[in-house]
Amino acid sequence: MTVVAKGNNAPDSRTAKVIQLYASPPSSASPSDAGRRRHPSQQRSEPVQPRRMAPRPVPRVSDLGHPNTDGFDETADITPINADVAPRIDESGLPVQRTGSPLFSLGGIRSAVADTVVTSAGYLRERLTGDYEIDDFGFDRHFTENVFLPAMRVLFDKWFRVEVTGVENLPTEGGALLVSNHAGSIPVDALMLSVAVHDHHPRQRFLRMLAADLALESPFIGALSRRTGSTLACTADAERLLRSGELTAVWPEGFKGVGKLYRDRYKLQRFGRGGFVTTALRTAVPIIPVSIVGSEEIYPMLSDLKPLARVLGLPYIPVTPTFPLLGPLGLVPLPAKWHIHFGKPIETNRYDEQAAEDPMVVFDLTDHVREEIQQTLYRMLSRRGSVYFG
């Protein structure tokens, strides 16, 4: 997601540079880059050295294929994305519908709320000792693990009944850039994705989210977002997180995705200018396509009060079946059944850092990632059961 940030919004009052397609001119290559191959367009620009062996061909984006979607055809039989999402077959040969915890399971909700209260009480006792740390971005691991995540699990497990697949595609260590579709009128998908990564990853890794300046500038939401791992979606912060080995998430559709109408559900919007690809190329981290089904139905956006939104300085004001008709009650999300799938990683270390300056490489990789997510969404939707009672 590409946003413009003022310098005083970045941590430590340092100037935050916006993620852009075109970066500063490349500097001279360092000795560590000598063994890394460049894009063919960059090789042609270099003088031909006599008595030099021809370089091996650099893998093209078209050669990567679509590991999550190859062979997909809307009219063909559905092939599972992987074994984890394959339909289970009962003794009669019919597929068994996957379900999470039953909807409106009051006993389960009471148990989850009680666990949250107990965890929060323990957090307060530990907080008084002062034995916790806050990093340079404002991330408070102690608060996130003991207050934020337990509260989100009530929605994750009992309300949205989220099914998670493809966790094996997340690296056990080191940085990776998670790129996801965005929807839901309110970015609840970012919160659910952070729970999915932490609770389902074997090492319970934390997700660091790149957020819009509008969210971080809000009085209460901004402080909470930074404390739970979010930071400004700018080049400096994104590269610093990835180089330090963090799992970092970005939503390239931005407000166009989260604020689209219900009739356009699960149709990906533009992925900006490919700033996330430039960042991944510079840091040589894999790109993990993430596909989320269920977020489009929690606040079905029927219309947009654009004149009022412009007056209030907001990107949109949604009109849903329950909001603003039911007032504050309309802010309660509908209990859609969710499915989050982590796709196979798209490696970027096959290119050197200079590839980030090549518009063709950036455009091709951006389109490749977008197509992976879009086609995976189609496959997930084709196997979907009931939206709210599945």
Percent in strands = 5-15%
Q: Please state the structural category.
A: alpha/beta
For the biggest β-sheet, the strand order reads 3-11-8-4-7-5-6
List low-confidence stretches. Answer: 1-56, 71-99
What is the rounded Rg?
A: 22 Å
Order of SSEs: HEEHHEEHEHHEHEHHEEHEEH
The helix content, as a percent range, equals 25-40%
Could you give the count of β-strands? 11
Task: Indicate the mean pLDDT.
Answer: 79
Give the CA-CA distance, first to last residue. 31 Å
Shape: globular
Major sheet characteristics = 7 strands, mixed
**How large is the count of helical segments?**
11
What can you tell me about this protein's structure?
The protein has 390 residues and is of the alpha/beta class. 33% of the residues lie in helices and 10% in strands. The protein is built from eleven helices and eleven strands. The chain has helices at residues 40-44, 106-129, 141-159, 188-200, 213-217, 219-227, 235-243, 255-258, 275-283, 306-312, 359-382, and strands spanning 88-89, 95-96, 163-165, 176-180, 207-211, 230-232, 247-250, 287-293, 303-304, 318-319, 339-342. The strands form three sheets. The chain has a seven-stranded mixed sheet, sandwiched between helices. Strands 1-2 form a two-stranded antiparallel sheet. A two-stranded antiparallel sheet has the order 9-10. A hairpin with a 5-residue loop joins β1 (88-89) and β2 (95-96). It starts with 39 loop residues before the first helix and ends in an 8-residue tail after the last helix.
